[in-house]
Amino acid sequence: MPQISITVNGKVRKARVEPRLLLVHFLREELLLTGTHVGCDTSQCGACTVLIDGRSAKSCTIFAVQASGSTVTTIEGLASDGELHPLQKGFWEEHGLQCGFCTPGMILSAVNLLNDTPKPTEQQIRDGIAGNFCRCTGYQHIVNAIQHAAKNGLPKRTRKGAKAAASAAAGGR
Ligand code: FES
Ligand code: FES
Fold this sequence. Notes:
It contains six helices and five strands; from the N terminus they run E-E-H-E-E-E-H-H-H-H-H. Mean pLDDT is about 90; it is low at about 165-173. The protein starts with a strand and ends with a helix. Strand 3 and strand 4 form a beta hairpin. The chain has helices spanning about 25-30, 85-95, 105-115, 120-130, 140-150, 160-170, and strands at about 5-10, 10-15, 50, 55-60, 70-75. By secondary structure, it is of the alpha+beta class. It has two domains: about 5-75, Ubiquitin-like (UB roll); about 85-170, [2Fe-2S]-binding domain (DNA polymerase, domain 1). About 40% of the residues are buried. The longest helix is centred in the middle third of the chain and has 14 residues, at about 105-115. One FE2/S2 (inorganic) cluster (FES) binds near residues 46, 48, 58 and 60.
């Protein structure tokens, strides 16, 4: 089995995995990072979205071996020093969730969106989360939550170039 090495939430994780193992299953079943959800088997729902080298990606569409050498951020890695990320605060303040199943993926897609477009229009927000389905909220509160975060801006660690920051945090490995 191939050996992989992925920096996940600032920590280098090495393992031997089956070549067919999906990244989402590596995160959930090997690392027990169960905030990354599986909501479909057709790559449509976005519940499995994580950041790979600072860009959002559906972790059910990528083999763990393909992510080797990359930096991955899951929802568990967004808060820092007990402080919620501005997007987490936005979802909290604006009631951007009900069951919460879509929320981790929605938030990580929104990090990507605000990296590309720090002050998005409502339409840009709706387009930015078009790959993420919510079965509960009707989206308006989610849009409000992302607008709330856009007002505060993203912290450095989740801005573009977060790979360099995360590898530095992991001791440059
Ligand atoms: Fe639905 Fe990945 S689990 S898109
Ligand atoms: Fe339930 Fe989005 S909050 S699926």
